[in-house]
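Dig into my protein:

:::
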Amino acid sequence: MKKWMQKCLVISVALLTFGVITPNHEIWNSLEDNNNTNRSHEPSANDISSAIQLDSLLYEEQDSVADSLKDAARAQSYIKFGTRIAPKISNEFDTRIFPKMEEAIEMTLARVDDEKIQSLTITENPSGNYSEKIFNIKDSDSNVDLIRFHVRTENRPNEGFYYNFHYHTFEDSFVKHYNLGDIYWSKNTPPKWLS
């Protein structure tokens, strides 16, 4: 506060109260100190460490959501494979297909707002028979799918049966196929999913 304003306030308080209340000079000093600290407040080491901790907490939350989605994705995939298909394709799935699934999940999470990440869930009922759906990742608040993972059984002439793993995203209305890879089954017709 400027000096002339302080003097005017002191005089007006003195005139209005007829000298019964005298202003304490510590009030003015503390007002000046507060104004100076507000103007030139330098972040302390404490403030910086608090901000870093908050950022790391946010990243830890995102990582834990990503990890839980990946774990659920792997579990849902193996539920879809069932006990007849899983033993034959599990090695190739774990080494070639699943790492690409994890990448796709991470890329999807990178495009989602921090507030929405906590509301992401994975569907828990892979389709059976010869249907493609493995699982979807969706926003549980709006019930909108963000990414859909599928596996299609393909019969290639003179080669045999393959499992084509791919996914679709909400960004193109689930039209485009993003290929994750193929796993060869055999020339014989594969069993139905979930068997």
The two ends are 80 Å apart (CA to CA). Residues 53-186 form one domain. The longest strand covers residues 144-156. The chain is about 50% helix and 20% strand.
